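Researcher: We plan to redesign the surface later, but first we want a full-length starting point. Tokens attached.
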């Protein structure tokens, strides 16, 4: 049985992993996925080839790690979902986390790599969708379903509603960056874009208010 790594060696291994992922992202963007070798990535990351191959035996495995770690900066599991009971608060929390996530330059770089290499390497697009966007989207859909089941929202089609909500935010925070390298909206503008998306969702999906009962007599 292999000996367990000490805390120091675990930190060292994590640092090397982060250096590899950073170097690979930069090289994929600069030279293309096909034009970047694992040996070149190891050199750029300042690690030995054996260290890189031990963690990532193929470029596909390395790209998979890039996608997964990029999206997991905001965990997409059930623990990350807001508690049900306050639709405005829940949507606001989700919206601001999503804006922070897709607004990072690293996320824009990831999308650029996928778009540039998609004709030759369609599997990169599948990885980006299945390991990144889909788990995140599923988490938002499940939150909306939970609010609907609890009677806190009227969301008969949670899949469509999740698409609408995330799309409103990404259309302001992420997609302009694909074409405009100097796109860098102020934090206040991003905040307002999220709040406007929340208000739109509430107008569409908040439960209809029941009229107050008429007084007797």
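Model: Full-length starting sequence:
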């Amino acid at each position: 049985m292999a000996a367990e790594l000490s805390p120091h060696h675990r930190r060292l291994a994590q640092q090397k992993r982060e250096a590899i992922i950073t170097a690979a992202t930069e090289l994929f963007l600069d030279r293309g996925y096909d034009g970047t070798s694992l040996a070149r990535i190891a050199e750029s990351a300042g690690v030995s080839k054996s260290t890189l191959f031990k963690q990532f035996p193929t470029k596909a495995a390395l790209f998979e790690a890039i996608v997964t770690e990029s999206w997991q900066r905001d965990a997409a599991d059930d623990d990350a979902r807001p508690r049900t009971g306050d639709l405005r608060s829940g949507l606001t929390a989700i919206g601001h986390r999503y804006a922070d996530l897709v607004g990072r330059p690293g996320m824009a770089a990831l999308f650029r790599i996928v778009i540039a290499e998609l004709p030759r390497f369609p599997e990169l697009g599948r990885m980006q969708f299945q390991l990144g966007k889909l788990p995140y989207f599923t988490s938002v859909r499940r939150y909306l379903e939970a609010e609907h089941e609890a009677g806190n929202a009227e969301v008969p089609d949670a899949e469509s509603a999740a698409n609408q909500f995330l799309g409103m935010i990404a259309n302001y925070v992420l997609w302009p960056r694909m074409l405009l390298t100097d796109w860098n909206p102020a934090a206040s503008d991003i905040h307002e874009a999220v709040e406007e998306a929340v208000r739109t969702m509430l107008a569409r999906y908040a439960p209809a208010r029941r009229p107050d009962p008429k007084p007797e007599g």
